[in-house]
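Task 17 of the worksheet. Students: predict the tertiary structure of the chain below and write it out as C-alpha cells. Keep your answer in the requested format; marks are given for formatting as well as content.
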Amino acid sequence: MEVSPIFKYLVAVTDHLATLALLTGIILSFAAQAEGKAGRRIVWAGAACGFLLGCALFGVRMWDPKGMNLILMSFNRWVVVAIAAVAALSTLFLLTARRTARRRGSADLLLLSALAALSLMYLTSPVIQFTQEFVYFGESGVSTNVLLRAIGFTLGVALCLLLSLSSFQVHRALNGRGGLLFLFGSVLLFFLEYGVAAVAALQRLKAIPLTDFVFKVMIFGDSHKNAFIFAQLALALVMLAWVVMTHQKPTGEFANKALLRKEKARLRNCRRWSWSLLAWGVAVIFVVVVLHYLDTRPPAEVTPEGYALENGIITIPLEQVSDGHLHKFSYKTPNGYEVRFLVVKKPIGTAYGLGLDACEICGIAGYYERGEEEIVCRRCDVVMNKNTIGFHGGCNPIPFPYEIRESNIFINVKDLEANEKRFR
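Model answer:
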C-alpha cells in the first residue's frame, strides 16, 4: 500500500508536541483559577518567551549549521536537564500547595511558566526544522508531495492545539482540589519523561558515568518513546471521566428557571469538552501508533530482478534501472551464498548508484524503498540520500567496482564473490 507523504510530518509534529500540549492546557487553566487574568498572563508570557527563543535557536542553526551544530547539541542537552529540574521543583511545590497555597501561589505559577518556556524553547526549533525538509533534494518546490507534507505538518500542529484547548476546558470544570490533583499528575509525568531524557543527556555530556542503572534508563527511553504520551492521555481520560460523572445534573437551589437553565447549559458544555478531549486523545493515539506504523513499516522483500551473465560478467541494461526507483539483484556464488546488490538512478544528472544490499554498520539487513523518494535501511530506519549511494561510509550500501558503457552496467562477478563473506 502506498504511504501518503502527509503521514510523516503529521506523526513527527504530534509526537513532539502532544504531551506539552496537554500539560500547557492544564497549566493555563490552573493559572486562570489561581490568579485570574494575571495568572494567565504569567504563563502566556513564559510560553511566548520560550517560543521566541526557540525561533532564535533555529535561526542560529540556519545561520551557521556546521559551526553551531555541536554547540547547539550540547546546549539542548542542558536544556533537557533544566526542564527536568524545573518539572521536579514544580512537582514538589504542587505536592505541598494544599497547605501553603496562598503563600506559594505566585511561586507555583512562576515555576510552571518557566517550565512552559523551557519546553517550548526546546521543541520549537526541531518542529520548525521540519518545514525545511518539505522539498527533497532534486525535487521541485512546487509539487503535490511538497503540498502534502505541508498539510501533514499543519494537521499535526492543529491536532495539538485542539488537544491543548480541550484539556484547558475540561480542567477548568474541576474544583480547586481536583484541578490541583490533575495538574500535579500531569507535571509529575512530564518530569518523568524529561527525567529519563535528562539522564541520557547528562551521560552524553560526560557529566555522569555510564553505570548499569544509567544504561537501563537510556535503553528504556529509547525503547518506550510513546510511553509518556500514553500516560498523559490516560490521565486525561480519568480527568474527563471525572468531569462527565460530576457534571450530569444541577445541584443546589436556583432562584429562578433562567439560572437553572444556565447551570444545565454549563454542565452540558463541560461534558461536550470532555468528549472533545476524548476524541482528540484517540486521534493522537491513532497518529502515533497506527499512522507511525504505516509510515515506517518496511515492505516485504522484493524478488531480485534478472540480468544477463556471460563469461563472469553481469550485464544490466540502463533502461531497466533508469526509472529512479530501487532495483535489487542477486548473484549466487560458487560457494552457494546469495550476494545481493542494488542499483538506483540518482535524482540529479545521469549517474547511477550501485552497492551491496548491506552496509558496514547494520550488516546485511538491507534496504527498501519508501514512497517515491526514500531508500531506507531496514534495521536502523535511516533514510539514504540517493546521491550518496555508491559512496563509502555511514549506513550507505557498500560500494563495489562496476563499469557503465554502451548503455549497460557491467559487473565482474569476482567483485561480488569478494564480498560473499558478508552474506554468510
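Marker's comment: The two ends are 32 Å apart (CA to CA). Residues 185 and 233 are 11 Å apart (CA to CA).
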